[in-house]
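Researcher: Structure for this, please.
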Amino acid sequence: MRGEVLGVERRRRWSEDEKLEILSEVGVGGASVTQVAQRHEITRSQIYGLRRDLKKKGLWSPDRGAVFLPVDFSAAPTPARSVMVDLRLSNGRCQRFDSGMDGEALTRLIRAVEAA
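Model: Predicted structure, token format:
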């Protein structure tokens, strides 16, 4: 029985940056590992192998590419009216304050009451 080569077999090599680029495509726009592998003409197991190798080298982490966006709280709705809040502290004391109280002032007050 004879085998026949139908195409040119090639062994490709990627730089660390190219490997990271391939891995970072997974999940973008809902792209699966299979879709990214097909796009680069490699197997799914090669994607997982790239991920494993780069993790060992400290170049890849699961949260790589996480994006932190600024949040504007000034547009958040404020309560129409303030209410009284009772807070029971760890030392058994109870602190009553207005819900509209400034956070930093409240923190200083709680610390002073717990220290007393």
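Researcher: Any notable elements?
Model: The first strand starts at residue 84 and ends at 88. The mean pLDDT is 79.
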